[in-house]
Amino acid sequence: MARRSLTVRVLGGLLLAGASLGGSARAQPVDQRIEALLQQMTLDEKLGQLTQYSGDWKVTGPVTFSGNHQEAIQAGRVGSMLNVLGSERTRAYQDVAMRSRLKIPLLFGQDVIHGYQTTFPIPLAEAASWDLAAIEASARIAATEAAASGIHWTFAPMVDIARDPRWGRVMEGAGEDTYLASKIAYARVKGFQGRQLGDTDALMATAKHFAAYGAAQAGRDYNSVDMSERMLWETYLPPFKAALDAGAATFMNSFNDLNGIPASGNSYLLRDILKGAWGFKGFVVSDWGSIGEMVKHGYVKDNRDAARAAITAGGDMDMESNAYRDHLGGLVRGGAVPVALVDDAVRRVLRKKFELGLFDDPYRFSDAARERAALNNPAHRQAARTMAAKSIVLLKNEGKLLPLSRDLKTIAFIGPLVKAVADNHGGWAVTLPNVDYSKFIVTQWDGLKVGLGSGTRLLYARGSDIEGQNRDGFAEAVAVARQADLVIVSVGESAAMSGEAKSRAHIGLPGVQEDLIRELHATGKPVVVLINAGRPLVFNWTAEHVPAIAYTWWLGSEAGNAIADVLLGKHNPAARLPISFPRGEGQIPIYYNHFNTGRPAPADGVAGYSSGYLDEKTTPRYPFGHGLSYTTFAYSDLRLDKAHVAGNDKITVSLRVTNSGSRAGDEVVQLYLRDRVGSVVRPVKELKDFRTIRLEPGQTRAVGFLIDREKLSFYNEKLQWAAEPGEFDLMIGASSADIRLSAGFELAE
Ligand code: GLC
């Protein structure tokens, strides 16, 4: 062995001895500790840090190996595990890692998407709250619980823009709008990572799936994505940049090919943009097996070539494809891959382990006492209940059927989701083995029963299944309805019908549920419909005939209480749709911030040579930003402090909002802009800001916005982020389609 490398090894050994023994080493700068350790590592040990396996708790991808990887962990050939949960199990796995030569601790990752043991509403539902503070608090609680259970790292937030509700993973993100989704991405990263990484209630966040995964063609999961640079930069990348700006510790590349190059091997995404232009210092984990899947993509010929492509493109950690473990060593030894690329990836991973304090105490997150105190505690459950109520969108309320009148003596609560239990969790819930979740989930039946108290009789009938054509339950349901003063019908998907690999070509209410609604409506009783789903559904007959409809998504552990709080008026709904609801699949993709075209379609229907349909309206069933309240709000006195702006001048916008109804309520005041003429065409409107204000009946308050140059900018024909002179329309709306006030201004040169 060359003299130099021996000296370096000895020095490194001394530093490492300090590092692993703690003591003075802790005082050393992390960079020094990383270098000292790197010097000690064999190539196989380096590749170990870049290798992640799933435990046997839950399958979230195609399993290629059975067992617990103990031997590989002890040999220092595993850097991270996912799907290993709980202080006890993570401690046991860490024990094995501590028996390895260099005692490098494992990272435990988990899909903590909307809660850990206290389950919050699915992310798309939370997005409907437009309440950034509540969304951050939700992630904060999830992190507190997961970090107490040995988890270091969540594979969240998913920040994929989605304009296609056929795609099952629309449930996991923040909908169709880049501005709202970027704000939510920032809030979620801040919530997960807390004050600082290394705190024992902080999780590393993951901005995923990088990038443009939500634009999968035909709404089919994992499908190809083909889009212009402008669309990528203007619509799909900003939420990732927002997550990065919030300090996201890691990114996860997506499964899809983007313009023909799989994200796992896409150096434009991972090196040029993420690690280059954006200066990302964390690490990139692949999605489950996605490195190896480049063979199926037809981008590489075998797993060896996949390993080369991925490490070259900037992928740091290989989840479950074994490509790095099996092939990177040979590629480095054969000179096909510079060891510097491997070292850079290893440094990135080790840095996070140091930042989490795992070298000083590998067990610091696996704390049984803290775990017991954190999981499902009353404060967390109350926060989940509030978040769930804030997520319920009141789509329709003719005749003010809601909130339920206290005079109702008998209510029929009918439908396959009334007494559903686990479905309320929605997709991507963390369900630990051997836990009876019926103890932790408030069903819709239980919530309403408790909420109503003994003064109102609550009758039940299942009516139908979620799927299938069986109508045997209709007669009983109708008979029960006839005994009631009002009927509430709870229908929708099962939780298993949205999420990963859950695309649906037909997104109507499954089975015969809408027929059940028709039958109940035909009794002449007033009908309220609750729709539970992980995506926008199509329910045109219901939308046109039923007087009151609330979208209850999947609301988590406190679903029943939250639904009762809204139905009974304890919480006045204020949620707004974060995604357009189509009238039918034929309209998809449908989104509010579309271009005008040269022959814009009339709002409803076709008029001659226009961009409309012969057989359908062009407007959505329910538009982005839509949501009703139990009160009403009037908008007035829109003022701009200047009608002409130049350079970096800002425009101060003010208006007044009055609660013109009889109940206190929250209003989400939305500001949209339209750039009338640009070097590339601009959308007919774009959300640029919003304010949520609470008003007592009769109360009026001023609302203000600031229009700066950033809000006027876009990627021009040269893909430069710039504002262009010209006229702008400013619109203030209660939704993207309910514009209450408008004005114009001009940006001068
Ligand atoms: C899945 C998902 C990804 C998740 C990962 C680990 O395939 O695509 O979002 O974080 O595997 O479960």
Q: What labels would you give this structure?
A:
Rossmann fold; globular; Immunoglobulin-like; TIM Barrel; alpha/beta; 749 residues; six-stranded mixed sheet; 30% helix; 3 domains
Please characterize this protein's 3D structure.
- The protein has 749 residues and is of the alpha/beta class.
- It has three domains: 41-56 and 84-370, TIM Barrel (Alpha-Beta Barrel), CATH 3.20.20; 393-574, Glycoside hydrolase family 3 C-terminal domain (Rossmann fold), CATH 3.40.50; 633-747, Immunoglobulin-like.
- The chain is 30% helix and 18% strand.
- A six-stranded mixed beta sheet has the order 11-16-15-14-12-13, sandwiched between helices.
- The protein is globular, with a radius of gyration of 27 Å.
- Residues 1-22 have low confidence and may be disordered.
- Alpha-D-glucopyranose binds at residues 60-61, 82, 111, 155, 208, 287-288, 500.
Shape: globular
Indicate the percent of residues in helices.
Answer: 25-40%
Structural class category? alpha/beta
| Rg over alpha carbons | 27 Å
CATH fold call of the largest domain: TIM Barrel
Which distinct ligands sit in these coordinates? alpha-D-glucopyranose
CATH class of the largest domain: Alpha Beta
| Number of self-contained structural domains | 3
CATH-assigned homologous superfamily of the largest domain: Glycoside hydrolase, family 3, N-terminal domain
Amino- and carboxy-terminal Cα gap: 67 Å
Overall mean confidence score, pLDDT? 95
CATH architecture of the largest domain: Alpha-Beta Barrel
Report strand order across the widest sheet: 11-16-15-14-12-13
